[in-house]
Amino acid sequence: MKKIYVIILLLFLHCYICVGQTQQDSSSKKIEAVRKAYMAKELSLTPDESEKFWPVYNNYFSELKKARRDYQNDEVLFEEKAVEIRKRYKGDFKKILNRDERVNRMFVSEKKLKDLFKKELQNRQKNKRPLSKQQFQGKQRN
After folding, report:
1. CB of 97 within 8 A of CB of 53?
2. pLDDT of residue 1
3. How far apart are CA 104 and CA 110, in angstroms?
4. CB atoms within 10 A of CB 51
């Protein structure tokens, strides 16, 4: 009988993990779609530029993510590494975007998008918090 319970538990656990992974993949795809649309709009990318830009940008972004993982406990070292990565990719972006102003706009737009994502996450977390005692009492009166 215990074996049956263990098997059922494992099946439920497997289903739970699979659903969680699917939701995470879906969220990653949505974030990537928003990132592409936002950056394409901000930079006014032509189809030709877009074709060249995204592979370079994806490599750049992957290096930044790796640096974040490698230096997650040391913000100063991460920032130094991020600046080094940006400097290294600046020339590649200039070849595609043709002007320093557009390259700079790309870095500024990337920061703005990051801030927008952070703000959205904070708003979602804020809305998930349980009501405080005062908020709860105020809602009961209304």
Report:
1. yes
2. 62
3. 10
4. 11
pLDDT along the chain (142 residues), means of 10: 60 57 66 84 89 93 93 92 94 92 92 86 76 51 49
- CB 39: neighbour CB atoms within 10 A? 19
Cα dihedral sign for 104, 108, 29, 65? positive
Residue 126 CA neighbour count, 13 Å, CB half: 6
Token match 């405080």: residue? Answer: 132
Which residue ranges make up each domain of the chain? 53-120
Distance CA 41, CA 37 (A): 6
Question: Do residues 72 and 9 touch, judged by C-beta distance below 8 A?
Answer: no
Three-state secondary-structure class, residue 27: helix
How many CA atoms does the CB half-sphere of 44 hold within 13 Å? Answer: 5
Contact between 68 and 74 under an 8 Å Cβ cutoff? The reply is: no
Maximal CA-CA distance, the chain: 71
